[in-house]
User: Fold this.
Amino acid sequence: MRTTSLNARTTTLSTNHGEDHVQRIADDRVVLTIEEAAQRLGIGRTTMYALVMNGDIRSVTIGRLRRIPVRCLTEYVNALLSDDTTATAA
Assistant:
């Protein structure tokens, strides 16, 4: 595994099942790709697409690109926490 630092971004190259995967972690960005958002939540890409298409997680379109604002991920997790708190209290 090789790690290099570029403008507050870390690029990690690793081999998984013979394929090279590039993983970018950018804490300073306002929007993330579907894959990056899924990784940040610790879920799969397919699950992330389902949450976006169902409207559970809001997204924006920039040109032809679908992006997830970081604050929408936070809103989603907070909603899960409040739903869990409400269900526990009832």
User: Anything to note?
Assistant: The first helix runs from residue 34 to 41. The chain has one domain: 2-89. Confidence is low (pLDDT under 50) at residues 1-15, 17-23.
